[in-house]
Amino acid sequence: MRANDTNYAIELKGITKxxxxxxxxxxxxxxxxxxxxxxxxxxxxxxxxxxxxILSGIYYADEGSVYIDGKxxxxxxxxxxxxxxxxxxxxxxxxxxxxxxMDNIVLGTRGRYVKNSALKEEILEMSKKxxxxxxxxxxxxxxxxxxxxxVEIMKVLYxxxxxxxxxxxxxxxxxxxxxxxxxxxxxxxDRGNAIIIITHKLHEVLAISDRVAILRKGRVVGTVKTGxxxxxxxxxxxxxxxxxxxxxxPETTSKKTVLxxxxxxxxNEDGTRGLKNVNFKLKSGEILGVAGVAGSGQRELCETIAGxxxxxxxxxxxxxxxxxxxxxxxxxxxxxSMSFVPxxxxxxxxxxxxxxxxxxxxxxxxxxxxxxxxxxxxxKLAEELVEKLSIITPGIxxxxxxxxxxxxxxxxxxxxxxxxxxxxxxxxxVRGLDINSSYIIYDLxxxxxxxxxxxxxxxEDLDVLLELxxxxxxxxxxxxxGIVDAKNTSKEEIGLMMAGKKMEGADSDE
Amino acid sequence: xxxxxxxxxxxxxxxLLFGTTGEMMNEKAGHLNLGVEGMMAMGACAxxxxxxxxxxxxxxxxxxxxxxxxxxLIYALLTITFMANQNVTGLxxxxxxxxxxxxxxxxxxxxxxxxxxxxxxxxTAQISNINIPGLTTVPVLGPLFxxxxxxxxxxxxxxxxxxxxxxxxKTGLNVRAIGENPGAADAxxxxxxxxxxxxxxxxxxxxxxxxxxxxxxxxxxxxxxxxVNGQGWIAVALVIFASWKPxxxxxxxxxxxxxxxxKYYFPKTIITLPNALYDMLPFVITALVLVMTSIxxxxxxxxxxSCGVNYYREER
Lengths: 510, 316
Prior knowledge:
The complex is a heterodimer. By secondary structure, chain A is an alpha/beta fold.
């Protein structure tokens, strides 16, 4: 028990932060004690990360004050935050790829020159104490996502942080890795650390936290004890109105194999394995979900089917015609459409500085006859999309990068669907979207499914995959671990496959 | 003959070594400074003038270092503080540095008694080749290692110090982290801006020393306009050739130095080639090294990942 057990580790009073005209945080009050895990729950864009970045010195609040151990502090840079014992584990890891784990851990700490062997000992001893597994000499670029996260945690612990902030730590982990992380967090809590975990996954909040603070549009709309709440109540607080958390899975009758992938192997540009002997069938009127830890070959799969990447071996049969070797253009004309939402959301598919009309044109200008482009059909299409998908934009002539993430994704997916494809490949379509927009996207996909479109849905959230897909294919290191019926599987089973456990008979997709 | 050739290669490679080390310090901190030529020119002019008026090697070196640093300060202010585009700023600095150095040199020339500027005696003696008793006279090894001027030893010393700094000290590790991923460095509590300034300024100063070598040694102690004459550009290429490793820069500079003087030493009896072909060699080799490193696809031995990109903490 700590002496200041009753005191707050952190108190935030009246924090306000604006970016230009956007209010990210407004009059936020929040507190956390030592030996407590506080979950910060909120949809994307609700200001969770901004708030925590204020604590870790990345941003400086416009108004309000921060108290640590009862004393008011002014955190103007990350250096001061570290000195105050605040350690933040960012969602997008802040690691130097070409450095070893050890170099990343000692980065920026005091001392001139530390002997490697002594330091290694120290790091190994610390990892043992917290039940972490670290290889001090391993280079970060050789690490899996969960290994990278371990290094981030070690970095924070090495600096002696008493207050830990984790930003969406589970978004890249398998269920098993998540359970392991939670065990480590509980151990830290028992050692008297204060832990703030940022998330938008309700069941995780219930699993790990003692208290939950809910943010909506930059304001704290409620703080509840975890033991006294339920998923539904949290969701309502988060969204601001009653929500249904059910995702439909309409039944369709036509199940004809449209796309057959046979023994597909792909090698990445840097010589690493992209895909290895991938076999599967995609049928009309079904959603085939693809699960896997980030970087398990999802991108390579999408790009190979879309004709952007070269296959090393194997075939992709579209209605018995091999499409390998065809140009992306020819593949699109066959009716295969891809929408890939990368982490920065704009990287593929849309041109940020162009408006909606021009982005629609990107896909259709080739059908235009004559020398001068006729913008009218694109303008009409853009207007239709705005209405149909309730895209919030100042106008169809606004550059798409000015739109919020959710609206950008609606533009992208909307355009792809509008071309009436037979095969729709969509990767992370709900990445970063609020609950409401996500459900609009799910409905869009289901609508296509009912039109007998074959849909390959690459997702991150296992709960969504389980509810939306008809079948789920699990990738690990570019290999198919198994394809299961979404109705008869469990998160645990998929989690094990994500981590590399091959299901028996995984190679035959019948 | 061969020892003489190697000697000449070292002499010709020394200004390159200064320039390369200086540029490497910039790039390690994430700043692609294309102003090496300009900073060297500023150092060349300031070093020569200080030597001319004060007749002291120490003051000349100090002036050259400060002048190079001044050039770097302009660059640092614009790119680190005001986030200006690094390539444009560097190119401009090169044009500016060469221009101002020629302007000052020309101004001194027309105002001098006999339209020539020649370094006085004391400093000429100070920058002539050093005779180390007992070592210089050793056959082969003596002429090979122990009969250079003070600049040569200084250049190697700086490069070795630089190597220790980046490879073995924590500050060096921090600087490398900034060059690779300033966001990560910042989050780890490293003072990004401060370290960037230190490395860019020190690098500029070192470039300035290389310039002083050009004006004081290569031109034989007589001021000639445009003393650096493109060496700064070769230094930028050399950083790539040395794959951002300070120790490799030492050998790389001397190898490039050898290419520079090859035309004078290559036996004409074998084959007579146009001088332009020899002048081309360093660049051909650099291109080959670039292609080779790109084929090897190694994550190491590459340019610092964030080199050329300015860092702004609150960017979203």
